[in-house]
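Students often ask why inverse folding is considered easier than folding. One informal answer: many sequences map to the same fold, so there is more than one right answer. In these notes we will look at a single instance of the problem. The structure comes first.
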């Protein structure tokens, strides 16, 4: 996606293309790691991204997973 230009419907990432793993960072604080299932990963400015972690802490595992789904839909 180019900044300022919305993606076409066909350009939106599919949740089935990613693996989501939730983990408890500290007691009661959850995050989720998002990993592309594709072998090459995502390339951003010449670097291969192997996983993305949700930026904030969440009070429950389902909240962290939901945040991961929202990030995938923005890709």
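Output (designed amino acids):
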């Amino acid at each position: 996606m180019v900044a300022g230009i919305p993606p076409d419907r066909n350009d939106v990432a599919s949740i089935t293309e990613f693996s989501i793993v939730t983990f408890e960072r500290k007691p009661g604080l959850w995050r989720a790691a998002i990993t592309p299932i594709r072998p090459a990963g995502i390339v951003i400015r010449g670097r291969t991204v192997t996983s993305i972690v949700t930026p904030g802490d969440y009070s429950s595992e389902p909240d962290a997973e939901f945040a991961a789904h929202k990030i995938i839909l923005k890709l």
